[in-house]
Amino acid sequence: MVAVFASWALALATLSTYTNAQCPNEVANYNPNLRTASANNTWFLVTVPKSAVQTALDTSYGPGLVVLANLPTNDASLFPHGFDSAAYHPVLVDAMYQDDVRMAAAKIEGPLLGAGLYVPYVRRAGISKAGTVLQAPLSTFISGANGDAIAGLVPALVSTLVEGYLLRLGLFEPTNAAYQRNDDGVLSNNAAWLVAANPISGPGIAPTAFDFQYTMQDGFALYTAELFKTVINQASILSGVYFLANVCQRNQYYFNNDTSIMTPVRGNVTFGPAADGLGVQKKSTVQKASPDGSGLYVRNEGFTGCGQNVGFNPQNCDEAAENIDQSAL
To answer: SS in 3 state form for the chain?
Structure first.
């Protein structure tokens, strides 16, 4: 999702007073030549007007090239209360803290923070096989911990220029944890796009992408754990030459042992100007589409948890969709 990210980007962990424990990277030994990580994430599904979601896709990928697929709204194991797919489409948004990032002999020193917005259940118009559903990133951001955005520069450049996964430098709150606990007990995250830093004289240019305000819940109500695992693990559409060649990437998250517990959450998600689009703008598409036009979407369901992540090599999008690791679902 993740997001859902390409080979050197994803995630969120636990160094503050109230966070999930960071899980170990136990998948590295089984995937020595792939990027693996311990990824502590908070994910939400946000219900957005269908026309706005398609507009955001058209802006990112070109008019009509990536289109919304039918949602399996009759599947009670995913949508136990149905879903108004005629008017709306869910988008997937996350904030993340990733540690122990490895690939072969290489290892990133220190944690990375990130965030992203993705559209699940999409297809390549006129290209995808019948039954193929994919995930389309709209925006993704990365930084080192403690406000060290430059630590994310190399991963961002490699991801964008070499691997076909557009990744921007970001600023995050908290700066070194999966989420922060506010005085009222509400948990929160903030992610912004670092357009221009200004370490000498004052504030730089960093339009907001996402704000989360949420609390933990006893269980899922609107959706199911199976739906979240399904949309998070859908193969991601890549950009540039990879897009022209219909190539995607599988980023698999495993939440299936004692260190990878999914804790349901519910709360508000506010989209800012950097949530989608190709450049700096006054308001993003999903922001304008919110009920009051401010970007605020209330009572969204999600979960927080530390999963073990494997980023597979890019492959044909239909093959990637067919080869999702079922043990991650």
So the answer is: CCCCCCCCCCCCCCCCCCCCCCCCCCCHHHCCCCEEEEEEEEEEEEEEEHHHHHHHHHHHHCCCCEEECCCCCCCCCCCCCCCCCCCEEEEEEEEEEEEEEEECCEECCCCEEEEEEEEEEEEECCCCCCCCCEEEEEEEEEEECCCCHHHHHHHHHHHHHHCCCCCEEEEEECCCCCCEECCCCCEEEEEEECCECCCCCCCCECCEEEEEEEEECCCCCCCCHHHHHHHHCCCEECCCHHHHCCEEECEEEECCCCCCCCEEEEEEEEECCCCCCCCCCCCCHHHHCCCCCCCEEEEEEEEEEEEEEEECCCEEHHHHHHCCCHHHC
